[in-house]
Amino acid sequence: MARRKKIYEGKAKTLYEGPEPGTIVQYFKDDATAFNAEKHDVIEGKGVLNNILSEFFMLGLGQIGVPTHFLKRLNMREQLVRSCEIIPLEIIVRNYAAGSLCKRLGIDEGTQLPRPIVEYCYKDDALGDPLVTEEHIAAFGWASQQDMDDILSLALRVNDFLSGVMLAVGIRLVDFKIEIGRVYDGDFQRLVVADEISPDSCRLWDIKTGQKLDKDVFRRDLGSLTDAYTEVARRLGVMPNNPPAPGKPQLVN
């Protein structure tokens, strides 16, 4: 497919105009970032794996009635998605204590939480995506109360689906983040799961060994990120036809 006009370039993906009105081509890059992009590598094959895995999760959500922006995968690095208005929030669902939650509340990493905890962060890299409350969201008009009710419902349904899928292949879903978009059909608005769902946006631990199979491998220098993502894809049975060759991360100056 001929390259279209670039709409936006982020840390892990580039968006282009789609072939039809209301569509976008989402290109998965090999870039890996952490600590608000203070750490940055290019890891060969990462974009291919995230594209394949995000397709798998989005299709699975669609099959259980959870609306998403995903339309189809175009090739090894690109997928066609529906254009939507992204709500400026990251929705985080936590099943076990990890990352910032441990730092904020002094909880030991790996502690099972009494129930899934849903948190909201304001999407702004310059501010470090700060944690916000529903009061902030309502006061600044980022989402209505009905939106928030729908977002909570979507987040918990995604959590149920992902937890079950991962448990079946011996992986613990520790936490994940999603983005939600608004799609308009005339005067009618509905919310959909947007962006991506991949090991970039989830914490995934092997149930037996505790081995990390997510971006913490990169954050903490725990080994090959490609190997970790490949293991997730292998267990889920969605390895690409031409899997990326294992290799060491290449440092970008």
TrEMBL record:
Its EC number is 6.3.2.6. It comes from the Bacteria. Pfam families: SAICAR_synt. Pathway: Purine metabolism; IMP biosynthesis via de novo pathway; 5-amino-1-(5-phospho-D-ribosyl)imidazole-4-carboxamide from 5-amino-1-(5-phospho-D-ribosyl)imidazole-4-carboxylate: step 1/2. GO terms for molecular function: ATP binding; phosphoribosylaminoimidazolesuccinocarboxamide synthase activity. It catalyses: 5-amino-1-(5-phospho-D-ribosyl)imidazole-4-carboxylate + L-aspartate + ATP = (2S)-2-[5-amino-1-(5-phospho-beta-D-ribosyl)imidazole-4-carboxamido]succinate + ADP + phosphate + 2 H(+). It is an enzyme of class 6 (ligase). Transmembrane segments: none annotated. One of its GO terms (biological process) is cobalamin biosynthetic process. Keywords: ATP-binding, Ligase, Nucleotide-binding, Purine biosynthesis. Belongs to the SAICAR synthetase family. This is Phosphoribosylaminoimidazole-succinocarboxamide synthase.
